[in-house]
Design brief:
Structural class of chain A: mainly alpha
InterPro entries (chains A, B): Isoprenoid_synthase_dom_sf, Polyprenyl_synt, Polyprenyl_synt_CS
CATH superfamily of chain A: Farnesyl Diphosphate Synthase
CATH architecture of chain A: Orthogonal Bundle
Cofactor (chains A, B): Mg(2+)
Pfam family, one (chains A, B): polyprenyl_synt
Distance between the termini of chain A: 24 Å
Oligomer: homodimer
Order of helices and strands of chain A: HHHHEEHHHHHHHHHHHH
Protein name (chains A, B): Polyprenyl synthetase family protein
Family (chains A, B): Belongs to the FPP/GGPP synthase family.
Largest interface: A-B, 64 and 64 residues
Chain lengths: 358, 358
């Protein structure tokens, strides 16, 4: 299993590189000035844990697809490029200057502007270039997906999943930014429910459920099997995102590659925050509402909210939820009638998704 | 011909509406809060001249495709959605508050924030929502394109054109914003060449050459015919964009739906601007460089540059170029061995593209 997985990752990286080489060749015919668009996509997608590609691969294998099939590799390429596109625009939306421990794409264009001594506003240029680079990467993901062939043609289950995944993640991201601005005016009682909707659509379905189903659908899995896969993958994705939420507040910048308390400065109204609003004292809630979403938040402010999240029981409630989702997910995996290699691989991926530190 | 074109437009509008209805249904399952994303796409794509869809349709017909074929209608839907996505992100990049005489998409979200009394920064929310809406619209265009069926499957000529169109327009847009910031430091001698590259890739190929070729390719046109089509459509697209550039500076806000001199405030370094740098006096060039790209530019400043563009001969040079491109395009159309209905339709579209006031 480990050997097969490592061979898959090698094939994935090679295919992704070849794809970007072809694109680089095509756009360099337009002008050499276009090179930074491709370079920044390449740098971004060369990193990452390949979780979505691996879930698609093992979904494909679990549904009876052949080992190291080119179709499954291409599906991985499409998913990694889609993830790249989502991250590029996400970082503009969240004004995140770093990603995976390096400058985010829009920041790299702002830096290029500064280094080159160009005119007008470097940040505005960086944002504009980032929007276009994300669009290009989104188009690439589709191109890679279509190139899988008849298994992803119009009307197929795989195409339906890919379409749904894209629409859901964009809708989920919108609900996320909407909650940042509208959340304080909405009911506290509904906050946890709204946070769950965001985490399900913005992240859980897209990070685990859809990639796994996509791989399985390409291998020809019937609907019943896809439903059984979801019983494993959806709670896993929810646990994965809750772990992400915890790391976004309590994570160590040295391992996450993002500044401490980043999610708080960005004003993310995660389940963690919803629980603090429900469980916290009046003082704690007042502090939270005064600070959340303000980029000027000091490290002491971050430390204050961290303490409140712990003392109020909000952190404990989220950790309990991660635990129970993980258990539900593991049980559903055990109940799946699949070969041992994919089962072991999915088990390992699931552990890593929930236990991770970055 | 006019009757067929009007039946096509009706079929296009109905199919586009049905497509958006299905998407609305899908995302409203997530949350009713997502409705404004779909609403803003619908409002945007309900406007416009349908030029790209019509070019694809008549390209399809000229290459022997059947009248009012569903494939050609779907190609029009995909192109209109792609154009919508490009406009949404373009308006964020250019900070344009209006589009087609109404608030641009990101502006409509900024307005929604204001009306709703939400927290944090309305403009930032508007931009973020606009980025996501554009991404959604871009995904929709691909979904519509794939649904055409085997004629747009991976490996087909139509798919190759669609992929190339997307990459070229994004690369061209990047070169456009790059020239805004880097242009002042680059050689005056090279400015016209750089402006031509931008207009070709950002606009000409995407507005006319690729839509026409796409329709023809779906109908099974051989490469030779596509090349002969390009001799008509590429100069037409260049003339179209040069007309756009002139309207961006000299257009009447009442008919363009955009503020007077918008392109100057945005700092667009069009061929018009390149010619002024080449042909203008030292004073004129100094004025231009001091004002271009500054949102604070007064109406008097706009009037000053307009005068300089006329007096220097820059406007005349661009008008001469529009004329010669139109002639080349018309000659190439005459030489095409196609049926009379598509020829007449393409002739009428070409006239409208170059003579328009908005």
């Amino acid at each position: 299993m480990a050997e097969e997985q490592s061979a898959f990752i090698t094939a994935l990286n090679t295919t992704l590189d070849d794809f970007l080489d072809r694109q680089q060749h095509l756009v360099s015919d337009i002008s050499p000035d276009v090179a930074p668009l491709l370079d920044s996509i390449r740098t971004l997608v060369s990193g990452g844990k390949r979780m979505r590609a691996l879930l698609a691969y093992w979904g494909f294998r679990a549904a009876g697809g052949a080992g190291l099939s080119h179709q499954a590799v291409q599906a991985g390429v499409a998913l990694e490029l889609f993830q790249g596109a989502a991250l590029i625009h996400d970082d503009i939306i969240d004004r995140s200057a770093t990603r995976r421990g390096r400058p985010s794409v829009h920041q790299s264009f702002t830096d290029l502007h500064g280094r080159s001594g160009w005119q007008l506003d470097p940040e505005r240029f960086g944002q504009a270039a980032g929007i276009l680079t994300g669009d290009l990467c989104l188009s690439f993901s589709e191109e890679a997906f279509a190139s899988i062939g008849p298994a992803t043609a119009s009307g197929t289950k795989a195409r339906e999943i890919f379409n749904r995944m894209r629409a859901e993640v964009m809708a989920g991201q919108y609900l996320d930014i909407l909650e940042e601005v509208a959340g304080p005016l909405r009911t506290v009682a509904g906050a946890a429910g709204r946070a769950r909707t965001v985490l399900r659509f913005k992240s859980a379905k897209y990070s685990t459920e859809h990639p796994l189903a996509l791989g399985a659908a390409i291998a020809g899995a019937p609907d019943g099997l896809l439903e059984r896969f979801s019983r494993f993958s959806l709670p896993l994705g929810e646990a994965f995102q809750l772990r992400d939420d915890v790391l976004g507040v309590f994570g160590d910048p040295a391992t996450t590659g993002k500044p401490a308390g980043d999610d708080l400065r960005e004003g993310k109204r995660t389940l963690l925050v919803a629980f603090l609003r429900e469980l916290g004292t009046e003082d704690q809630v007042r502090n939270l509402e005064a600070l959340l979403g303000h980029a000027s938040m000091s490290d002491d402010d971050v430390q204050l909210i961290r303490g409140d999240l712990q003392v109020s029981g909000a952190l404990g409630a989220v950790e309990a939820e991660i635990s129970s989702l993980s258990t539900a997910s593991a049980t559903a995996l055990d109940e799946l009638d699949i070969a041992e290699a994919p089962r072991l691989a999915l088990h390992t991926l699931a552990e890593a998704a929930v236990r991770r530190k970055a």
